[in-house]
Amino acid sequence: MKINTVYNLDCLEGLKKIDSESVDLIFTDPPYFQYRAKNVKGLKNHKDVVTEFEFDAYKTEEEYLQFLENVLSECFRVSKVGGSGYLFCGDDFVSYINKIVEKVGFQFRKVIHWHKTNPFPAIYTRKMYSNSMELIVHFSKGTPKTWNHKEVNKMHNFIETPICMGKERKAHKTQKPLKVCIPFIEISSNEGDIVLDPFMGSGSTAVAAIETQRQFIGFERSIEYCKIIENRFEVYDKKYKVKYS
Asked: Which of 54, 71, 65, 56 is nearest to 16 (CA)?
């Protein structure tokens, strides 16, 4: 497959077209399977829980976890020995994902905590705290070959930054800010390396790769989101493309 391209494809279809052991880093934010608010009357369209209704392809936890296992199994195949991976997840499924990561052959390394300084407020009737933490599972195919150590205070398994705001914000409900993506891409890859994102969403992984002089391959099955990515590429060189199926 061509590098510096986001393909409008389902990731399982696209991953099968990538050569084995050809990717340096996996950085991705898969759709979450969250169900706690589905049976709470009146909450479905509230901004604090809207992402809990986005992923409808799998109706049970078992189907969802099997889907992630299939994706991560392909990611293991295409990853170079010594390559790293980062996968965003919610607290409901982090323990399951850690087990899946190891089941497909990766080594689980650490859970990183992202503290959102401006989370959506919790709804009063839910009697819950605001969800200000999101987790990132770090894993590798063997011992990481690349580890670009930063200052000691930047090597914690904790990062603090707001959710996307201002000009960076696009029409994607769970867009990840570049301030969260770039540090880990810099640590676990080198300039010119290939970064893979099976769930490109708004294209943050691709933009972070461009900003750090890396290359990328990504998949996004939503045409709406592909158009967001295409618009984000307009400020860069024409070599960065979206290919529609």
From this structure: 71
To the question of pTM greater than 0.70 for the whole model, the response is yes
Rounded Cα distance between 53 and 62, Å, is: 17
Per-position b or e across 153-177, b if 16+ CB within 10 A of its CB: eeeeeebebebbeeeeebebebbbb
Alpha helices, H only, 79-197? 94-103, 178-188
Q: Do residues 106 and 83 lie in contact, with contact meaning Cβ atoms separated by under 8 Å?
A: no
Q: How far apart are CA 162 and CA 172, in angstroms?
A: 16
The amino acid at residue 50 is V
Number of H helices, E strands in the chain: 6, 9
List all residues 6 or more positions away from 193 whose beta carbon is below 8 Å from its beta carbon: 24, 25, 146, 214, 215
Instruction: Report whether 23 contacts 80 (CB < 8 A).
Output: yes
pLDDT per residue rounded down to tens, the chain (245 residues)? 999 999 999 999 999 999 999 999 999 999 987 554 454 444 444 444 434 345 455 668 899 999 999 999 999 999 999 999 999 998 888 999 999 999 999 999 999 999 999 887 766 556 778 889 999 999 999 999 999 999 999 999 999 999 888 888 887 888 899 999 999 999 999 999 999 999 999 999 999 999 999 999 999 999 999 999 999 999 999 999 999 98
| CA-to-CA dists, residue 8 to 37, 79, 141, angstroms | 30, 21, 27
How far apart CA 4 and CA 22 sit, in angstroms, is 14
